[in-house]
Amino acid sequence: MQKLFSTKLQGGILNLVLAVGIVLTAIIGSVLLLVYHRNLVLTKNSLQERLNRNAASGINYLLAAAEEEIEHFGVDLYGEGLDSVRLSKEAWGIFDLAITQAKTGRHEAYRIALLGAGLDSMREVALYLADEDRPLLLADKVTIVGKAFVPQAELKQVHLGQGEMAQPNKPLVKGALLKSKAMLPPLYKKALARADRYTNFKYPAAARVVPFTSAVGARQVLTASFLEETTVLASREQVVLQDVSLSGHLVVVSEQRVHIGRSAKLENIIVAAPYIEVAEGFSGSVQLFARDSISIGESCRLLYPSALYVSDGAGAGKLWIGSGAEITGEVLLGDEEGKGSNHLLSLQEDALIRGQVFVDGAVELYGAIEGSLMCRRFLLKTPAALYANYLQDASVRVDALSKHYLASPLVSTKAKKGIVAWLR
Amino acid sequence: MVKIMYAAKKLKASSLVEVTVAMVIFVALLSCSLVAYLKLTTSGLTAKKLEYDLVVADYALKTKAGKHFLDEEVERGEIKLVRRVREYESRRYLLLLEIYLVDTAGDTLSRYKEVLYEAS
């Protein structure tokens, strides 16, 4: 036995065993690390997937919530203590802003969305013209597709100017002709009340108000997260938005006037002022609230979901939309109280509104509307005269509006709600 | 000159005990590694469980896309997909979609829950 232990092996065997051992250890260690890391990644992904699903469930929960605004509150989705989400719903212009947060340990998932509602009863209505004891007279090249509510449920075809009528025997309205009432339907009452907050400069108590010049003056790009409180960029002077990029939870307010330049990049923000002017060629998604008037320059593109609201408190607000401009969203002129009905929307040639238009007053319609128009009267200006309730070279087509279009959720509380835009 | 010195250098022989101890240590290390490997691959999210999760997620996706909101049980070989749809907390338009993947013994292999908004 002693001889066995004292046996000497060939030189280098131990070194060889150690070398092979070290190589094997390195390989095995790598394999173990790889498997461990893979498990970690898969577990993390699985957890994140569940959190995303819970956050999406939270948005669905808010879509069904009847309340207009909900302060932050927690919900245990399935009553098992494992799937909790924090929810909040607040006003963002005439849309609702829904925020959900699902969290477990260090992992979290957010969903932020603008909520809207389907058109419901307005889905098939192209025109609602209030009955002011004046018939609607259609001249050349007028297209109305969809249900039309007009005074006494009748239309007359007239010919203005010289020469022959372009299409004398063409049907005037492709859709049912129905009798309208003296008042416009009160569909927009809540939306107008919400919009009045902005024109009267009323903001949530939690909003952070900072002077416009100090916040934007030195910076060209300003992005505010919707997860944080609303930032109000306020100014007593005129505000010029030129060569700036503003996006997110921002409200730009001026007590005098806001000029939006062509080079400004605005995304999902709100602008409020007595007078708002949008320069020719501007493109962006923005909600504009004016107490006096709004002017949209030629060839502007206001992308969905945009909104234009004018109310001067006396029923005489004005909205002018230049030739070639395209607005996709909601256009509202009116007051919550209905203090006056002399608002004026002027839609120039080749201008297009894609969405719903509500005017408690008159409309000069020389462009096209793909959606619904509700107004009290039409005005038609020619070099020779001003005609009341005449339409010429105009188009209102509800069939051209996408079936996926969602309006403000305040217009129809019973209609199916949906996501207007995902903000995160 | 260096080459000659290297050739002349003799390595010291090792005893059998030294080599045996070294080998025992490595065998022990290998055994521990094997145990750790098996534990890592059989616990947590295994490839099989991941596959089950994907089957359930795919079924949920098809349920939502096709708006198939009726209870259903579908057998797929040795596993069974169980779909349950009910009103969520009696709230209008809200549905609770639950999907379970169970084996023949009735054990739940994977589960999926989501609150859906369905106004139509």
> Which percent range fits the helix content of chain B?
40-55%
What is the CATH third-level topology name of the largest domain in chain B?
Pantoate--beta-alanine Ligase, Chain: A,domain 2
Largest sheet of chain B: 4 strands, antiparallel
The gross shape of chain B turns out to be rod-shaped
**Number of helices, where a helix is a run of at least 4 consecutive DSSP H or I residues of chain B:** 3
Structural class of chain B: alpha+beta
In sequence order, what are the helices and strands of chain B, one letter per element?
Answer: HHHEEEE
Question: How far is the first residue's CA from the last residue's CA of chain A?
Answer: 77 Å
CATH architecture of the largest domain in chain B: 2-Layer Sandwich
Q: How many domain units of chain B?
A: 2
What is the number of strand segments of chain B? 4
Helix content of chain A: 10-25%
In what order do the strands lie side by side in the largest sheet of chain B? 1-2-3-4
Low-confidence segments of chain B: none
Low-confidence stretches of chain A: none
The largest sheet of chain A, given as strand count, sense and whether it forms a barrel, is: 6 strands, parallel, barrel
Residues in β-strands, percent of chain A: 35-45%
Radius of gyration of chain A: 31 Å
Describe the protein in words.
The complex is a heterodimer of chains A (about 425) and B (about 120). Chain A is an alpha/beta fold. Helix content of chain A is about 15%, strand content about 45%. In chain A, the strands form three sheets. A six-stranded parallel beta barrel of chain A has the order 20-21-23-25-24-22. Chain A is elongated and about 130 Å long. Chain B has two domains: about 1-40, no CATH class; about 45-115, 2-Layer Sandwich (Pantoate--beta-alanine Ligase, Chain: A,domain 2), CATH 3.30.1300. Helix content of chain B is about 45%, strand content about 30%. Chain B has helices spanning about 1-10, 15-40, 45-65, and strands at about 70-75, 80-85, 95-105, 110-115. The N and C termini of chain B lie far apart (about 95 Å). Classes of the chains: A alpha/beta (about 425), B alpha+beta (about 120).
